[in-house]
């Protein structure tokens, strides 16, 4: 499936009226430093003199992942002198970028309350928050605004819709959560794959032992679904029409940082009530954007629970309470939930919401651009020249000449 991230990045660049050298991961979703590449075929003059913008707004930030010890095996570094290699890699994400005269570079991201954001800010980056998932989701789910197949029934086939295709890495909490709701599996329409990243869930080695399900037979309760990773960029009208409440399983949950993706926005776009399995404070974040979160109808105290295991237990307990309600009480509950969900759907597709997301980005970007322009001191450039003079043989393995040819221009700019 085509995911038009470059179109989004072009737009975000255009509305700030500033030329950047934009780096983004390609293919989409990769975390490999070798896949952090320029968006366009920039000239060497642009690469060296224009401010750098690294787009990392789709996946959660992970400062430690790009520390020297984790990325020094990248193929283009194989023959570099050791000291030069260490200096280059010490630049973290910027190690994928050409040497530039600005000592700070802009890093877009989509997370709140993040230690990683603080670390990047301390190490030469200007973090800019932009909820790009909201902008993309408005595009991906645009037909949900008018789709006649998206109906809400007070007598749905299932009480809950649970998408839990992937469960490795930061998503391993999903296996534990499925074990908690296995006794109401018959009330859930669940997407679950027994294999993820080439591993069978029964053989999976948990990073966090607290999520270990001790070989529970999940397949017996939830079956085995074959779903591609592209599924997040689409919606199923059948799934949503046959289920009352969407249980959103976010990318990250066992952390204090909040990183809300298209997974959270899909039920909103489709006019469905939802429960959100994510970090504490996730619902507060949605309310800040004008969404309503069913707090007088669903027990949402789970959103304030900082212990992940306890938070999962609270959510599963509320699901079981709802699943076991008498029919007439369910009818009343769903009627009220659907009214709020319809409000959220209209708000999601409104110009007010779009403008809120864009204006927030513009304010954040203006501050960052000012700081980056003030950092045009050339310290990184001169460090590069000093190291090159120490190891002139570096030119044998790395074509530094195009960069060095920029020296007269750079010196004229820096004075």
Plain-language structure description:
- It is a single chain.
- The protein has 18 helices and eleven strands.
- The model has no long low-confidence stretch (mean pLDDT 93).
- With 415 residues, it is of the alpha/beta class.
- The radius of gyration is 24 Å and the shape is elongated.
- It folds into two domains: 5-130 and 377-414, no CATH class; 142-350, Rossmann fold (3-Layer(aba) Sandwich), CATH 3.40.50.
- The longest helix is centred in the last third of the chain and has 24 residues, at 351-374.
- It has a five-stranded mixed β-sheet with strand order 2-1-3-4-5.
Features:
2 domains, alpha/beta, 4-stranded parallel β-sheet, 415 residues, 5-stranded mixed β-sheet, 18 helices, Rossmann fold, 40% helix, 11 strands
**CATH class annotation of the largest domain:** Alpha Beta
Query: From the 3D coordinates, which CATH architecture of the largest domain would you assign?
Result: 3-Layer(aba) Sandwich
Termini separation = 48 Å
Mean pLDDT: 93
Beta-strand percentage range: 5-15%
Characterize the largest beta sheet: strand count, sense, and whether it forms a barrel: 5 strands, mixed
H/E topology pattern = HEEHEHHEHEHEHEEEHHEHEHHHHHHHH
Given the structure, what is the number of helices?
A: 18
The count of domains is: 2
Structural class: alpha/beta
List the helices and strands and how they pair.
Elements: H1 5-14, E1 21-25, E2 36-38, H2 44-49, E3 52-55, H3 68-71, H4 82-89, E4 105-109, H5 115-122, E5 125-129, H6 132-140, E6 158-164, H7 173-180, E7 188-192, E8 195-196, E9 199-200, H8 218-222, H9 237-241, E10 243-249, H10 262-269, E11 274-277, H11 282-288, H12 308-323, H13 327-348, H14 351-374, H15 379-390, H16 394-397, H17 401-404, H18 407-414
Helix pairs in contact: 6-10, 10-13
